[in-house]
Amino acid sequence: MNNFSYTQAGSAKEATGIRKDKPQAAYIAGGTTLLDLMKANLEEHPLLVDINVLPFKGLEQTKDGLRIGALERMSDVGENALVKQQFPAISESLLLAASPQLRNMASIGGNILQRTRCGYFRDAAFPCNKRVPGSGCPAQQGDNHNLAILGVSEACIATSYPGDLSVALAAFDAVLTLENAKGKQRRVPITEFYLLPGKTPHIETVLEPGELIVSILVPAGAYTQRSTYLKVRERSSYAYALTSAAVGLDVQGGSIRSARVALGGVGAQPWRSREAEQILTGAPATEATFRAAAAAALRGAQPREHNRFKVELAQNTLVQALQKVAG
Amino acid sequence: MDTEPAFFETNPKAGSVGQPLDRVDGRAKVTGQARYSAEFNSLPGLVHAVLKTSEVAKGRIQSIDTSLALKEPGVVAILTHQNLPQLAKTPNSPEGKKAIGAPMGFLPLTTDQVHYAGQPVAIVLANTLERAQHAAALVRVSIAAEKPLASYADPRAELFDPQKVQDGKTEGHTVRGNPKAAFAAAPVQLTHTYEHAINHHNPMEPGSTTAHWEAPDRVTVYESTQGVTRTQKALSAMLGLPTEQVRVVTKYLGGGFGCKGSTWPHTVLTVQAAKAVGRPVKLALTRPQMFTSMGHREDQTQTLKVGATKDGKLLALLHEKTSTTSPWDNYAEPNSRIINLLYNCPTFESTYQLARADVMTSTFMRAPGEAPGSFAIECSLDDLAYQLGIDPLEIRLRNYAEKDPSNGKPWSSKSLKQCYARGAELFGWSKRNPQAGATRDGRLLVGWGMATASYPVHNNQGTARVRLYADGHAVVQTGATDLGTGTYTVMTQVAADALWLTPDKIRFELGDTKLPTAPNSGGSVAAGTVSSSIYMAAQDVWQKLIKLATQDKKSPLYRAKAADVVVENGRMVLKANKAKGEDFATLMKRNETTDIEGTGNGKYGAGYESGLAAGPADSGHQDDMAGHSMHSFGVHFCEVKVDPDLGTVRVSRWVSVHAAGRILNAKTARSQIIGGSIFGIGNALMEGTFRDPNFARYTNSNLADYHVPVCADIPDMTVEFIEEHDPYINAMGVKGIGEISMVGVSAAVANAVFHATGKRIRSLPITPDKVLETKRVQA
User: B709 to chain A: which residues are within 8 Å by CB?
Assistant: First the structure.
């Protein structure tokens, strides 16, 4: 870890101002991802700007849906009664992630910005196009057991976002509110927030330098209440998903009126599957429908040697999640 | 041997041995008073060391640029192969390696060669840990890299027959009878191949060393080691100092599992660094460095051929193992050992093949050989049972070995049948559905599996000193180490019983080369050897007291023959007239004797009789010591629930029943069996280190991505012991339980997975991808 300075920003304006002057500085909230990256010398920042006192808090139901302040902690949001009742998939995605200690520290904004667990990215001894553009991607021929099969490129097959929350947010068309150094806010749907690797896997989101995540708005619908997050992993807790599915269904009289589907662990980004949703919408809530939707979601998968199992596993995960909410 | 030697009874009144006494060191540990080897921070002028390691697996160091790092504040020195003082001896030659007892025939920082990823190339020393870490990041190492070879699986790998394995300790070829002919003629033939991922020990406490040169030729090393004596021997050989000028101290150890059983390079490098800068130096390995600094369980494939009769009786066992070793050493854990003796089989053969790769040497890891070997034999026996329609427990009884088949000797004791019976009863095995893949709990498949466990009783030497004071307390000392499993506690109990005191009157000290030597705490030897040493030392004290009494005119025992005096209820009394006698305090006070010292050694039993007991710094002999073959036995029963669509396997019930001689403490013993079983469940279901085939470097060297079980993976576990008196093994009749607890565990899990799914997975760990793949392929 490099030596760094630390300062606390009292306002968003102050925080973004510091970043404008020192582009290499980093914001720190819970620090659960950032410090790991710095300890491994994967990121070097001369200055950390503590944003914990910024007023990006709050958790409330507005007329547009659920508004979550970016500085809320994972544990608080996951355990919130409103979230549990109205948006179970979001609550479950948070409570199935990390460990209680990490969830108590980690912020929602930081969770959205966590970085891949690809072993080649996490060890500076390896080449990695995401870390050092143009250096290569040993994962293509190496340890790709838990890497992505959808949206991947020759340059990168990482699950760029390895976590859970953004999968649920992607399913529900969540919209991020961002604020830049000029104090100007803009809104970006989370499905447009993450970028596919293509030839530039080092550019992971549309976030501009210095821009802050202020809050997340999750529109409510019948499908948000009848939703779930199913996570498959190699041990019962404290493990990243091999595959996961965030689904929400509005079923009336055995027929699906609307559906929301996103997959985790398989995409280069949280993988919203409108293909699956198309098949589900208007169809009977049967296993045959779910299987057809799952097949559609994984069409176009490009597995490597050690992650072929994910094509089947992701489909089974999705089917099981849909069965659960269909009742 | 025709007559059984006397079996020492412990003090029934004090009643301490065997009881679930709470850990005597528990309070010190939870309050932070217990100091581990990286916690001697008050040494004057202490310097923090950080290892800079090689990113590549093979190559030659071109240059090391330390200029930037040396300018940083607080940096004391940066040592490389160019400026580190030379050692008297290195393990780089076979003779040097043998003299040192080194686990690896190569010491980093002695040449410009890089032989494995993670090899130390520089030691950075600074006055704080953070400054040392920062400076290490600024050291620029330029290496002319060559393409490495990562494992035996690489098509370029050259396989060879090592003749001997486990670093020369075990024969690589064993043949009994004519196994090839017996297999060819067998009515039932099975040939199966088993694969094992690399496993890493990962104790909570990383490898750590604090080295303090108190004089130019005298050093004290606080070391996280399973054996202070072995470390002392290794360091004194390398440093060229008499052993008494190298003191090694290990008061507390945060787990070892075998990786702390040898003296690895970082230890001597720290000692050299301390010498070079003339200040105490402390090094604690980082978690990623734990994957490349203290060995691992090697990647391996085993093929087992089983020939049997149609009623399930074994006729032939042929075992082959192929595994990866380092550029210098022929290390392979001896899987065949357990296969040769677990069941009654008239013929047997084992062979080993190794391939050299650009990796560090693998090493012993909890039940080395027995753990993977039992996976092969116990899965194959399960296959045989299903193929012939015989209950898996019944087929084991049909092949029950009444004598050790590997050498024809009688067992010193064996209570496996009782273990089977009790385990089956506790588990409810009789209610088992004989059909595989036919039991459900909702959408989950339910499976039951079982497997036999066995582990040798290694016979080692150990010594102990007991000093009994007239005021009724005693100081008991031995140079053993406590891995954290309860040595402090059980030895306090043994000493209390042997001296007829209560445990609170015993001050037990260990972990220092200034104390009487004891063997490495490895191979499950500590409990048996150390307890016997203490027991014998206590007997020495009593004999001295009896002598004093019989020569004391004022003693009721004056002029009695020593042989006619016995100790009962803490009193020395005449065997013929137990009313006549006195207690030790009265005797000692009258004679103005403040204290009496006794010494004892634990090489009692078969090893003692044959004179073949191993020295304290060597690994012990495990069998054929005298007339008996010495092993502990047990059984694991396991229930799993498998999601057939998601491939997830969760253990839902667990029963272990073992017979391991005398159990010294019901609570710590139960904890140890639970811990070993969980260790085995990790091996079975999730542990595996991935070595990149092109870079020969690990991709998951951290505890987020190298999975060990979490609490949620483990159900309530039922553990019981069968009472067993073994008069042959050692004075206390203790076999040791550190390793048997994980033998057979992976097979019990795999057998349960088979019973649940009807599909056999022969590759560890059994992760969801393999469950799905096997379902697809075998469908």
Answer: 235
Sheet with A65-69: strands ordered across: A59-62, A65-69, A212-219, A175-179, A185-189
- Contact of A324 with chain B, judged by CB distance below 8 Å, is answered with no
Tell me if A310 is assigned to some domain: yes
pTM: 0.96
Cα separation, A85 vs B638, in Å, equals 38
Q: Is residue A101 part of a domain?
A: no
Structure tokens at A55: 């007023």
Is this complex scored with an ipTM above 0.95?
yes
CATH of the domain at A256: 3.30.390.50
Instruction: Give the residue numbers spanning the domain of A252.
Output: 223-326
CA distance A320 to chain B (A): 9
Q: Taking CB atoms and an 8 Å limit, are B130 and A120 in contact across chains?
A: no
Domains of chain B: 26-34+459-610 (3.30.365.10), 401-456+623-778 (3.30.365.10)
Domain of A38: which CATH number?
A: 3.30.43.10
Residues 8-67 of A with CB under 8 A from B: 41
Best to test chain A binding among B705, B766, B773 (most A CBs inside 10 Å) = B705
Cβ-based contacts of B134 with chain A (< 8 Å) = 1-3
Interchain contact, A309 vs B647, CB within 8 Å: yes
Structural domain includes residue A44: yes
| Residues B731-771 pLDDT 10s | 889 999 999 999 999 999 999 999 999 999 999 999 999 99
A232 inside domain: yes
Residue B672: pLDDT band with limits 50, 70, 90: very high
| Boundary (domain end) residue, out of A54, A71, A90 | A54
Confidence of residue A270 (pLDDT cuts 50, 70, 90): very high
Helices vs strands, H then E, count in chain A: 13, 12
Does B739 participate in catalysis according to the annotation? yes
Q: Which two tokens stand for residue B724?
A: 């067993």
Chain B residues with CB under 8 Å of A242 CB are 768-769
Return the higher-pLDDT residue of B462 and B766. B766
Of B59, B110, B105, nearest to B80 by C-alpha is B110
